[in-house]
């Protein structure tokens, strides 16, 4: 079925149209170190507007994460919406898999577009990346909003069973689903009131997996494995003192 018609491909086209109508254009930045970054950037940047970086989470690219809300941001900000490494059209041949590396790549993209100061919103895994950006580049990041991201977790939290999924390998199989059943499980964890995905035919879910989750599977799972490694709560208080405007939404 997906060979004749792809619902995911059609929805992707609609999101692209929304971004274009909102005054954004697709831009590729070669970082010259084996890393290529894709980002939606303003067609015309206005000095009268502040700059805003929107960072997506796992399981989606920039289009799918922000497509339904982008029109609410563009009237007030110069909006930059990147694909993280191994999502969308961004990739690297380098071995790094940490959110720190992701943050450095995003910073280089912003610098490539001559953006010196900006605020950011990070959702889920994007919250980890956004937090890392703010700690590494405090002089550039003005305000931070982190949504649905457990940045205060420690490596031991997984071992002690704080989370519903305590095994990183199982988390990777859910967060980067390769079967309709795993995608249904992911939706169940993701939404406060999950839609009735059990009623959605498996062929539609398989189409989404093929379009959104079929590339860089192990690389994405490596990103998940890297998140809790060596994380310690004792590092958090001294970092949050850097900004006067720091918000965490859960």
From TrEMBL:
Gene3D superfamilies: alpha/beta hydrolase (3.40.50.1820). It comes from the Eukaryota. Residues 52-157 form the AB hydrolase-1 domain. This is AB hydrolase-1 domain-containing protein. Coiled coil: none annotated. Pfam families: Abhydrolase_1 (PF00561).
